[in-house]
């Protein structure tokens, strides 16, 4: 018998309709199916194609995605770049080991962060890193126990961070990443994420070129992925869950391309849930995507009416997570859970370094 990450509870939550209970998104996942290492040839992973109207499934290889794309359609890709956001240091007065995870930049040298151990890092506490060339001062405690931290250093912040920081891999990945570049997409451009938009990890430059040569457009947006990606849903009723805020930017060129695609009667296909959340956040009530930068805490679960997205390329998500709720809103809970059951049976690889789905 395989070891499972989660064990199913008994009975329904009183007063919560089917589809709004967190436990409605449970599925049995053997621990050995959690991918610990990336696929060395990015586009050689497996691809499960899911028809969201019929539930029909097709088993493919990721580079076959080109066969499902048509000229005039637009792929939306998140070009955020994961920074070495995990800093390991020591508390100045006690020498205790401390971990600080950068979540969102507030001003040049002030970040919202997740700290461990939180109880030892109250406002006024100071932390030093490496040879002492970087220090941090805890300014305040904010939502969810996160800390506002001011960093002190000499030189260029990005160079200091490259020298002292580590890639912040998800907690379910226990292997050390041999090549940190494999936790960024080939089109990553703008620094700022604490986690990768993992659906994009499957694309190679060659595959993207072939897709463009076929007449498919590429629209790049930016959403800096924060803590919300890993935060579990701790409430029984999903409608009571609070999403962490993330910053996004949609350029005029990207908005124009997406809007023209729809005006021409073609599909807009999002690469990853972060691209989906970006365009859905940026769209007005008529589905017209507005250019600009803003913060979003959009939470998509069944009942949501999609304004922009017509197709989704995504990885396999955690049981009872906000992301499996999002894909269930796009297809249906029954179709997604049936597809996941088939994926488990067929030994697909799950989560950040795992295989992919195309929900069409």
Percentage of residues in DSSP E strands: 25-35%
- Determine the fraction of residues in helical runs and give it as a percent range: 10-25%
- By CATH's scheme, which homologous superfamily of the largest domain applies? QueA-like
**Strand-pairing-aware structural class:** alpha/beta
N- to C-terminal distance:
34 Å
Widest sheet: strand ordering: 2-1-17-16-14-3-12-13-15
Largest sheet: 9 strands, mixed
Return the CATH topology of the largest domain. Answer: QueA-like
CATH architecture of the largest domain: 3-Layer(aba) Sandwich
Large-scale geometry: globular
Instruction: Supply the CATH class of the largest domain.
Output: Alpha Beta
**Based on DSSP secondary structure assignment, what is the total number of beta strands?**
17
How is this structure best described in words?
By secondary structure, the protein is α/β, with parallel strands linked by helices. It folds into 2 domains: 22-82 and 179-359, QueA-like; 86-164, QueA-like (Thrombin, subunit H, Beta Barrel), CATH 2.40.10.240. It contains 6 helices and 17 strands. Helix 5 crosses helix 6. The protein is globular, with a radius of gyration of 21 Å.
Helix and strand arrangement:
Layout: E1 46-50, E2 57-61, E3 74-78, E4 80-82, E5 86-91, E6 97-105, E7 110-116, E8 126-129, E9 134-141, E10 147-153, H1 157-164, E11 190-193, H2 205-213, E12 217-223, E13 246-250, H3 252-263, E14 268-271, H4 273-282, E15 292-296, E16 311-315, H5 322-330, H6 333-345, E17 356-359
Helix pairs in contact: 5-6
């Amino acid at each position: 018998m395989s070891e499972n990450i989660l064990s199913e509870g008994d009975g329904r939550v009183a007063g919560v309709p089917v589809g709004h209970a967190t436990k409605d998104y449970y599925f049995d996942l053997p621990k050995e199916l959690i991918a610990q290492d990336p696929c060395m040839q990015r586009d050689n992973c497996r691809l499960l194609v899911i028809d969201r109207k019929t539930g029909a499934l097709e088993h493919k290889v990721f580079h076959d995605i080109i066969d499902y794309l048509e000229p005039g359609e637009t792929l939306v890709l998140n070009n955020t770049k994961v920074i070495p956001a995990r800093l390991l240091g020591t508390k100045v007065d006690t020498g205790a080991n401390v971990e600080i995870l950068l979540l969102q930049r507030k001003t040049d040298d002030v970040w919202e962060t997740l700290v461990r151990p939180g109880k030892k890092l109250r406002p006024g506490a100071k932390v030093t890193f490496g040879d002492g060339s970087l220090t941090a001062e805890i300014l305040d405690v904010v939502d969810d126990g996160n800390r506002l931290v001011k960093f002190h250093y000499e030189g260029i912040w990005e160079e200091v961070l490259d020298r002292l920081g580590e890639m912040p891999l998800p907690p379910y990945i226990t292997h050390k990443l041999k090549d940190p570049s494999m936790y960024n997409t080939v089109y990553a451009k703008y620094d700022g994420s604490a986690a990768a938009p993992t659906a994009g990890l499957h694309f190679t430059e060659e595959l993207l070129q072939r897709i463009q040569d076929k007449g498919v457009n590429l629209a790049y947006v930016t959403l800096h992925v924060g803590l919300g990606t890993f935060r579990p849903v701790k409430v029984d009723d999903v409608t009571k869950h609070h999403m962490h805020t993330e910053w996004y930017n949609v350029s005029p060129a990207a908005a124009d391309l997406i809007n023209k695609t729809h005006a021409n009667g073609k599909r807009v296909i999002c690469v990853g849930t972060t691209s989906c959340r970006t365009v859905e956040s940026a769209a007005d009530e008529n589905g017209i995507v507005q250019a600009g930068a803003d913060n979003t805490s959009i939470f998509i679960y069944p009942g949501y009416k999609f304004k922009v997205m017509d197709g989704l390329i995504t990885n396999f998500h955690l049981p009872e997570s906000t992301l499996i709720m999002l894909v269930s809103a796009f297809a249906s809970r029954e179709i997604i859970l049936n597809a996941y059951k088939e994926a488990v049976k067929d030994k697909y690889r799950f989560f950040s370094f795992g295989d992919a789905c195309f929900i069409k």
